Amino acid sequence: MTNHHRSEISLHVNGVTHRLGVDNRTTLLDTLRENLGHTGPKKGCDHGQCGACTVLLDGRRVVSCLTLAVAAEGAEVTTVEGLAGDGELLPLQQAFIRFDGFQCGYCTSGQLCSAVGMLAEHAAGWPSSVTADVSPDGPTPVLDAAEVRERMSGNLCRCGAYPSIVRAVLETEAAG
Amino acid sequence: MNAVGVAQPRIEGPAKVTGAARYAADVPIEGLAFGAVVLATVTRGRIRDIDVDAVRNMPGVLGVIDHRNAPRLNPKAGGFFGPDGQLQLLQDEMIPFAGRPVALVVAETLEQAQAAAHVLPVTYDEEPHDTNFTADHPAGRPAMTIFDEPVDVGDVEAELAASSVVVEERYRTPEEYHSAMEPHSATVWWDGERLEAIDSNQGPFVIAATLATLFSLSLEKVRIRTEHVGGGFGSKGLCGPQLILAAMAAHRFGRPVRVTLTRTQVFLTTAMRPATDQLIRIGADADGRLRAIWHEPAFEISPLVEYIEGCTELTKTLYAARAIRTRLTAVPLDILPPYSMRGPGAAPGSFALESAMDELAERLGIDPLELRLRNEPAAGPVSGLPFSSRNLVECLREGAHRFGWGTRDHRPRLRREGSLLVGTGLAATSFSAGAFPSSATITAEADGTFTVAIGATDLGTGARTALTAIAADALEAGTERIRLRISDSDLGPAWSAGGSRGTTSWAWAITEAAEKLRGQEWRGTVTIDTTQSLGGLPGRERHAYSAVFAEVTADPATGEVRVRRLLGMFAVGRVVNPLLARSQVIGGMIGGLSMALHEEGVRDPVSGRHVNADFAGYHIAAHADVPDIEADFVPDHEPGIPVGVKGAGEIGNVGTAAAIANAVWHATGVRQRSLPIRLDRVLE
Prior knowledge:
The structure holds two protein chains of two kinds.
Chain A: E1 6-13, E2 16-23, H1 28-35, E3 54-57, E4 60-63, E5 76-78, H2 91-98, H3 108-123, H4 145-151, H5 162-175
Parallel strand pairs in A: 1-5
Antiparallel strand pairs in A: 1-2, 3-4, 3-5
Helix pairs in contact in A: 2-5
Chain B: H1 13-17, E1 33-39, E2 45-50, H2 53-56, E3 61-65, E4 78-79, E5 82-83, E6 94-95, E7 101-107, H3 110-119, E8 122-126, E9 141-142, E10 151-153, H4 156-162, E11 165-173, E12 185-191, E13 194-199, H5 204-214, E14 222-225, H6 241-253, E15 257-260, H7 263-269, E16 276-284, E17 290-301, E18 323-326, E19 329-332, H8 346-364, H9 368-373, E20 387-389, H10 392-403, E21 415-417, E22 420-432, E23 439-444, E24 450-453, H11 463-474, E25 482-485, H12 502-519, E26 525-529, H13 531-535, E27 541-554, E28 561-571, H14 578-597, E29 630-633, H15 656-668, H16 679-682
Parallel strand pairs in B: 1-15, 13-14, 17-18, 17-19, 20-27, 24-25, 28-29
Antiparallel strand pairs in B: 1-7, 2-6, 2-8, 3-7, 4-5, 9-19, 10-18, 11-16, 12-13, 12-15, 16-17, 21-22, 22-27, 23-24, 23-26, 27-28
Helix pairs in contact in B: 8-15, 11-12, 14-15
């Protein structure tokens, strides 16, 4: 195959830099899963409709199935495998276990990464579509159940773990 | 000692929150090739040509398998409903439904396989099709009768004629899709003469047996493993196209091949709940005593394979009535073969029955709760058999108490909050309980642990955690001494995770094996099979029960319905693990909410094709649709089944749609007899 179909890129994933050649068509999701062995991010739809592939790109949540690997070059990619680093589980991960915030677990990687990104968005003062006051100088919205549900709605769960996920997120947030 | 009954987080929890749990498409395999499936784009016809030469030289392409070069499959292969024509992939040029696989393109990488599959030219000679389901379709005929057979007890016509009030209405439910988050995936390789597979399914032994028959292999030549499964809800109960096609390709190309369906392919070529159209007539005396229930559902099937959407199973057991008549009609159409979806039969059936009961309560001027309490049967209304245990009344009373039902004004359209109309509704329900034969092996290890091996699988049900607790109690050991092995067809015959009979079937086998090991003073190895002891189970009406209460708001200006409260009380036998069981029934209720408000497979009447085959078009409930749901259990015990369990996998789905539809009526005064309760059906 000629060179314009492939690119040499550097990907920084969970603190490790990988130098690799990728087919330009390859999504970040497939690169993580098929080339780098990070099968934590899941392919639920490959269309950005389910959120199972959510990872953090420089701390912001993205659906990795709609992100080309070549477009992620230079960014810091965090997958579910990297959330806890080498240490103990994040309080959010522990809360997911304690409140049973998953059943089959297939959407869980995405729910967790999405929740981490969402909490950062909220901490930065971002409103959501259920935020009452969205004026630029409005107060930071209180992160109640309605806010969490709205902000997490890009992550589908067919087992129906939503109430437990919301509880786990709120509990984690309250514990600071 | 008692591990059963204690709330414990899932054993595999740490693996699932760190991404370490491996699902079928996650397992690394050396030398893997990828298969991409090509589906038929016409609804009925014949393949004229597949131009393999057009893709043969594309980068990385190893080859294409189609009906001209695929291995011949055994037409006798099938499952619960007999020989299954849906399994006969790539055997001829016939197209029985849009979405039927017509080819598998195999290449070195996923991108190469997908690129070639996208451009593979397939031409068809189209034939006229019929996908237009109606209850009075001329092709309709009686459904097969291996269960939910027609009944006719008492004189239905005379009882209806003598009734003070008769409700006669039709209720309709659309095609619905299981939509497990994990798309079906299989990785297959040949280890010498032995076919090895990692596959997402609901029961590796049953699937291995089907695959062995299909490829005319002896059972010991097939091994299927299924460590973590990303949900099934019925759709992974069958030997899936991913597995059959990967097996063909692994043989052809002499290397491991992975076939993972795309989301759209999961919609188009795995399974669905069939559309139903149900005529119900219920007659009652003025005091609410039922005289007659006459329930006649029709549902769609494919000529490829039989299927029963057993909508009338509840009708035969839920309420006392002097006369009960049921008859199921199957309408063969050129559609994807339907298959059990969470709460099969009962979910659409209870929508009809429990909506009709609510209409009856309205016309009688009786509290819908009271109407149900007045028609509590002493024995099976059709079978005459005693109930093994029946705690529906407890569910209704406790649920009503917690929900605050007692203060409800039963007249509709009285509560307003600003522009919103507010209403409440309830439904009662049951789901049959039982067990199927399974085997189990327990070995007392030298280090004091027990290895418990059973061909169970954990789709997210919590089976791994529940069976560990059950084994611990049966072996009089702590859970830390139990090493559970599941998810492997080599572990012996076992029922699948399906029919709400996983835990009952597996608990039975583990308990029986443990008893035998006790007889050996906890030494050595025992293997048992429960086929014989299951035969000794006395004939009883054996069901789980629930009562579901819903509060909704309806916006007459937009048609939007939102569920504000949902409460379920359940009698599901002994609860093995309250934390996980609560999650399971809440998950079921969310499935029911989704059925009530969102889910609808839409077919283009001209092409016959399913037009919303992805998550942008086929809506399932998302976080923002779901309130904090209350669910709890009343004390219950199944005397015939070891551990006293009944199964909790499906009953959560059942009843919820009717409770919500009844609440929408209470809010708006308008009956919702067709699901889903779309905006246009509520808009004023």
